[in-house]
Amino acid sequence: MNWSTVKSLAAVLFKSYFRASRFGRRSLLSNPLVIAFLDIVLFAVPFALLMFILPLVPAKLMSSVRPVEINSLIVLPVLLTSAVILAGILFELGQASGLASSEAVNWLPVSPREYVVASTVSVVFTYSPLLFISLGVTVPLAVNIGMLSIVPFFILISVLAFAWGAVIVEALRSVMNRISTTLYKKSGRLGVILRIVLVVILLVVVQIAFNPYILYIALSGIVAGVNFAWFVPVIWPSVAVVYLMTTDVARTTVFALLSLFFTFLIFEAATRLRIRYWSPVPVTITLSTSTVYVPQGRSFLWLDPVAFAVASKELRSLTRRREMARFLAVPVVLVVASLLPVLTSGSNQKTSLSGVSLVLLAEVSLFLPMMLSSISVGQEGRSIANIYMLPISADELVLGKLFLPWIFSGAGILAIASLLQFLAPVAAGLFLAALVAAAFNMMVQGYLGLGTGSRYPSFDAGPRARYLSLAGFLIEFVTGGLATLAILTPLILYESTGLFTGFGGAQTVSLLLTIVLTAVVGTFLLVLARHYCMQGIKKLFSSMEA
Amino acid sequence: MDGIILESVAKSFGNNVAVKDMTLSVLPGEVHGLLGPNGSGKSTTMKMIMSIVKPDRGKISLWGVDVLRQPIDAKRLVGYVPELPYLYEYLTASEYLDFVGTAYGIDLKVRRERVDELLKALQMDEHVNEVMSGFSQGMRQKIAITSALLHRPRALVLDEALNGLDPRSAKIVKDVLQRLAGEGVSILFSTHVLEIAEAMCSRITIMNEGSIVAEGTVKELRSKAGMPGSTLEDTFLKLTGSEDTEKIVEALKL
């Protein structure tokens, strides 16, 4: 193994990550020295703070905190492995397909083993702030509970567990690229659908797994089950820490050695996978075996052929690009994360559900159309040139671009509203009022999102690109939030204060007036939002400087 | 006025002057070569014709349609092949051509005939249902050329359109362009391959640092450079002030 090759390749991979990411080319973080400095600060600050604060905590309170301290030490190694794997997977999935292949290593004199080591080192270094801040918090805890002697071992085993994450990420990269390529090559259109479904499921599972509520339950389970799940390799570093705490040196040594053995095992597996699959090259994907060109192009609902062509292109962009899958996963995560604590709360499920119903409906009608419409200009990337060189008008572009956000959001709103109505039914009139508000909100958010997306697009195609500049993101968040609040105000007032109940006294009349008021506010905002959107698109057309 | 007309067009990007006071006309039936070193302003000029880049001043018209005032109408008249065709990589060739064909408002039956003809001629018919992300540079170029010719434009703006094409396809494209010129289409064509420019273009404009340094037939250019009987390469190097190539090669310690 040529270590100077490993060192320079690791530096290249590390720098490419930061320079290709949204941190940008001129990011200070792409300098390894800055990361090293950041690591020191992230360790030193919490370490110093906790070393100062913990002795001041009253003994009575300390006794109740102690189990948390012990559990943190046990759980940290597993948590570090999982966190690196999670970050690595999200990075890989968020990376534009065109950037996923690092073909240069195919013709440079770099061996697969050197590549695996370099890739592992670069991943470790990239996410090292996570390791240092975790140690900065947990080491004072160990000192505080009188376990200073375990600190060196604890640090070593945590670093080892952290490195496992990096090696596993490297192995997963080979496998994921291979599976993706094979799936595409062999199954054409079905492969595209299958891949998007798998990616969305994976993202949903991963993001839900790191939801604070779920994480709390899972970590409690890990701590309780460390002794029973000793045969699971990922747990070995934690098991070693448990035995060290009980001064069982023999068992600590066994699990530390097993951990080392597992390190070599996964490294060997990652190397063999890299030898077998090496770096992926772009593949030819055939969606149909037919070589006959069958022209398509028609009107659909309220869309003329050009607007429908734009909408079809948007749908294909959303479903065929790996980096777009996370946008499909977000609404699912949003709904599941909101519903899960309520559904697992036991007794007062119905009361809790009716409490979150309006919030959930507001979330879906706000975030889904806002997100899909605001990214629709930036996600074009450099291919936006096509829109400029073809005779597509601003009206056609707006209708085509908003079709998908509206259809998806409409379906989402109906699905959520029906689910909530099934789980915690409300009166039909109230259900209708909520749907009217959600529908207006969805349309307004679509226009606002596209208006902002066209004014502040980010054409950066790096990993986890957000396709909207930070300024655009903030503006959109504020305007979208205010619009949602305005549209929902009549309904909120009706629910909380019985709006208009004094007006003739009848509940039905009051509800009807609430719906009318919602429609008035919604229509007014719709006109404003449409104007904002059209101006944004026209500005986009007039300001193109390729 | 017919053809592609630029009157006193200028464009700057910050302090960088890309095009200075450019006046150019590409008449109907003319294949007009636009030559110049890298960064001389050729691509910017072409993007301004396509209303992709807005000029700071001046007027551009395509067959009488003002590009700045009626960009959509102007785009319907012209076919464009950019220097780097950024196609939608996640679409298949047929889906992309559908998108383009629909934007130009081409009838389905007509579109089918033209796409079939063009893809067969460029040997791309076997790849029509493949996603373009796996295409080579030449294949992408062929799809870009097909999309530019699909609506039978009255003007063509081709920015190094023959890049990456195999000799057979390049020959076909060149012959097609000559035929279209014969039918009255105005063609503005940029290339760095001077032999192609000499063989194809009836008139040539040479640009350097954003300005036109010479314009005319190949014969007129030679006489302007005071080099009758020389090659177009030597004429070009003289007119763009880059005749020092021999000294540079000698200085290289390779």
Overall description:
- The complex is a heterodimer of chains A (546) and B (254).
- Chain A is mainly alpha-helical.
- Chain A contains 19 helices and 1 strand.
- Chain A has helices at 3-20, 32-53, 59-94, 97-100, 104-107, 112-126, 128-144, 151-209, 212-225, 236-245, 249-277, 305-320, 325-343, 349-378, 384-389, 394-423, 428-455, 470-497, 507-542, and one strand at 285-286.
- Chain A is globular.
- Chain B is 39% helix and 24% strand.
- Chain B has helices at 42-49, 71-77, 93-103, 108-121, 137-149, 167-182, 194-200, 218-224, 232-239, 245-251; strands at 4-13, 16-26, 31-35, 57-62, 65-66, 78-81, 130-131, 155-159, 186-190, 203-208, 211-216.
- Classes of the chains: A mainly alpha (546), B alpha/beta (254).
- At the A-B interface, strand 1, helix 12 and helix 15 of A face helix 2, helix 3, helix 4 and strand 7 of B.
Task: Summarize the model shown.
Chain A has 546 residues and is mainly α.
Helix content of chain B: 25-40%
Oligomer: heterodimer
Q: What percentage of amino acids of chain B are in beta strands?
A: 15-25%
Main sheet record of chain B: 6 strands, mixed
Q: Greatest chain-chain interface?
A: A-B, 46 and 46 residues
Rg measurement of chain A, Å: 27 Å
What gross morphology of chain B would you assign? globular
Radius of gyration of chain B: 19 Å
Distance between the termini of chain A: 45 Å
